[in-house]
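Regression report. Comparing outputs from two consecutive submissions.

Submission 1:
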Amino acid sequence: IQSAVFQPLANLVYVAVPEVEGAKPVDGHYVALPLDGKLDGFNPASGPELTPSRRPAPGAIRATALLRQASAIATEESRFVEAAGLLVEAAKLDPADPAYPLMAALTYFRAAPTRKGDTVKAAFVARGAELLDQAERLGLSAYQKALVALFRGRVADVLHRDHATARREYQLAATKLSRPLREAAEDGMGSRYKLGAFRKLVLDFIHVDVFRF
C-alpha cells in the first residue's frame, strides 16, 4: 500500500496499490475497501473510481519553488515587495492556479504601508487590486470569491474613499463559509478600512489555499 484516501460518509477507504513491485505512487491504481472492515457482500465497484495522482508539470514545480522563496524572504526578512514579485512570476509559471495571484495581491497590500509617499503606497494597493482581477478570471471557489470581495471593499475604502461601494463588496464577502471572514466583512461595513491596517495582514504561505485577512 502506497497511500490511502478516506471517505467516511460513504464507508469507503481507497488504497493505492502499485502495478509492479517498487513502482512509484503515480504508477499505481486505487482499490476500494469498506472502512468498517465488513467485507461480506461488499462490492469494490460501489464507490466512484479514483485515478492515480499525476506528476506536476514542470511549471507547477518551479512555481512552488518560487512560493517557498517568497515565504522565506517575506516571513524572515519582511521583504514583501520582492516576495510579491516572485509570486507574480509563479503565477506565470502555473497560470491555472488562482492561489498565486491571490497571494501576490495580499503581499502587495501588506507591502503598501511600508512604502514612502502616498503615491507609491496607492500604486501598491492598485497593483494588488489588479491581481485580484487576474485571480477572478481563473475561476474561484465560493470562499475565494468572498475573499476577493473583502479586499475589493478594502481597496474601495483605501484607494477611492468610497465607503458605499466598499459596503456592497463587504456584503458579498459576508459568507457563511467562514466565520472569521464574515466577521472581517462585518467590521468593514461598520467603519472605513485604513491603509495602515494592511500592516496587520498575516501572510500564510504554508496554507496558501486558505489565506489570512
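Submission 2:
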Amino acid sequence: TSSAGRVRERTLSLSSLRSLGANPSSPSSIPYDTLTRYQCHCYRPLVWGPDPTSDSPVAKKRKEVRKSLDKLGHHVFFSEDLIFDKTYKVPANLQERVQVGEMDAVICLASDFGPMQEAQEFGKQAKEFLLWISSRARGTYTDSGLAQQLRQARLAPIMFEDRDLGSCVIAAASAEWVEQIRMNIYAIEEERKRLNEMAPTRGAS
C-alpha cells in the first residue's frame, strides 16, 4: 500500500470543501459569506520533528508541513518556539506538556529519539494527533508498542517511505488532516446555528 493509500485509511479526504456544496477547484463557486465563516476557524497546530536547523530530509519536511499549514491561515508552532525556560530549570517535558494542552492539534514526524519520545509521552493527551513514522519501524517494538497503542485509540500512525520525503505527500496530507478538523468543526457549528434558528418556529407551532 502506498503512503497516499495509508493516508486515506486515516480518512484524510482531499476534498474538504466539497461538503460545502461547492467545487473546491473553483473558489468562485463558494459563496463569499460561507467561505469567510469557514476561514475564520483557524487552528493552532503544533509540529514535532527533528531540529529545524538540521539539514536532514525529515527536518526539511517538518518545515514544509508548517509552510503548508501557514498558507491555509492556521497559526502553526514548533515546540522550539514555545519553550519558556531555556535554562530548563523547568524540564523540557513539563514545558511540552503545557504546549500540548494549549494546541488544537499535534503533527509528529517521529524520525529520531526526540519526537518519538514526545509521541510516547504526550500523543494520547493531544486534542488531535497525527503521527508519521518511518516504514522501517514496521515489525519493531515501536510498531507493536506505541503504534499499536495509538491504533487501539483510533489514532493509527501513518508509515512513510523514504521516497515520500522527496514528494509533497506528507505535507499535503498533514495540511488536509487539519483542514478536515476545521471542516468538521465548521459543519457542527453551522448545523447548531441552523437548529437554533429553527427553534423559535418549532416553539410557536
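Expected: both submissions complete independently.
Actual: both completed, but the second showed a warning that disappeared on reload.
Relevant detail on submission 2: Helices lie at 3-9, 32-39, 57-71, 79-82, 92-102, 113-122, 141-152, 169-204.
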